[in-house]
């Protein structure tokens, strides 16, 4: 493919940005709002302590103005979160947290400097950024917090100078405090960020497992449905077929009843179609997972896939698979899945269009099988539904919409993945990624 308008991985939708933090998560941002209100209260307390106990020099009006701006900004943030208008809000929230750090550093400078215990809230801002804003904003906030805390020593208050005059040894203690704060801030940034990413990764894996479990349950339900439908409908369809055949024979020598003869032929043709649908459901769904894995080669498995096609279809398939890749697979299952993908590609291709089956070994010793066509492709809407049971882009009566669903279910039950990339007018590429040894896993042949 030269251009792709959209790609879909038939595994699980990605709702987060690995390594970058949550994408405007309303729940996380609500925690940010709560902490900022708490910071506002703490800042007001710091100001009160500074004016009452430390003789703060900052004008009371200026302090009230800063706290008012802080309150207005958090009120705006609260409104955005509660109204679910979170588009682009992560950047705004990160900027507000940075402003909070600068404001808190300034308030500390004006109300006791490092002697004010409220300076511990600088660490709270770092934790908050790590949990809510992602790695980039975490390190920005950490840099500002460490720099702000250092500024309290570089521009010491009169209270700190008095304390150093009365107790000269306190200078060493102050330098130790700054070093301890810096190490603690860096440790929190690294550890909490890694913890947040680990939780994010675990949530993605749980979402993947839930998605696969739901598809496995649908697969089991369809297996039961196919078996039940084939059993219940086989007898009445056979009866109708016999009756229509007898009617067709009875009307064959009566030219005046040619219309009825055509109706009898139509009934028989529709019965044959119903049988094909039932056979398709029973064969595609009930067959796959009863086969035990065995030692084979990738080339042999792909040749079996081609052998399952009709003779006319085999001539339109190009097989480009190495002969030296051993696999331990239920070969019939994989061959069946690949054959389904090839049939889909042939149906989507223009008359005479070809489908290519290729395979290779990945860097992590897995096997990749690719089925590519140059057919009509799929629109983004069709691609979003690809793999749903009974959804098909084929003309009515040509397919049941089960081929891709069954192929994906079979591959996933063996621990692999099926990826579909397509664009309207650009064709479709289906990629299966599977362990070489599905019994022992990725490391089974090392």
Could you characterize what this model shows?
It is a single chain. The N terminus is likely disordered. It is built from 13 helices and eight strands. The chain folds into three domains: 187 residues, no CATH class; 72 residues; 148 residues, Heat Shock Protein 90, CATH 3.30.565. The protein has a six-stranded mixed beta sheet with strand order 1-7-8-6-5-3. With 446 residues, the protein is of the alpha+beta class. The protein starts with 5 loop residues before the first strand and ends in an 11-residue tail after the last strand.
Q: What is the helix tally? A: 13
Our Rg estimate from Cα atoms comes to 34 Å
Give helix and strand order, one letter per element, not per position: EHHHHHHHHEHHEEHEEHHEE
Helix content: 55-70%
Whole-number total of structural domains: 3
Q: Termini distance?
A: 34 Å
Q: What is the spatial order of strands in the main beta sheet?
A: 1-7-8-6-5-3
Write a brief caption for the model.
The chain has 446 residues and is an alpha+beta fold. Helices cover 62% and strands 11% of the residues.
